Amino acid sequence: SEAKPVAPIEDDAMVKARMFADEIGEIADILEVQLISSDILEKLRKADSRRSHHPLPE
After folding, report:
1. Would you say which domain of life the source belongs to (predicted)?
2. Residue 22: what are its φ and ψ, rounded to 5°?
């Protein structure tokens, strides 16, 4: 049986591409979590400043 030199290179590239995609996916998940938490922090900050500008009547 003849070994095709092209196939192993394609397989290697596919493996690398899949690993790369997994890493990007993990990074995207981390960034998404950071974006969500910073969005929440921003909302809390705005709510906080609103509270200090307009103190609740006692």
Report:
1. Eukaryota
2. -65, -45
- In 3-state terms, what secondary structure has residue 31? helix
39 is a domain residue: yes
Question: Nearest 5°: phi and psi at 10?
Answer: -60, -45
User: Model-level pTM?
Assistant: 0.47
Domain that holds residue 22: 15-43
pLDDT of 6-47, one tens digit each? 666 678 888 999 999 999 999 999 999 998 899 999 999 998
Q: Distance between CA atoms of 47 and 41, rounded to whole angstroms?
A: 10
Number of domains within the chain:
1
Distance CA 41, CA 22 (A): 29
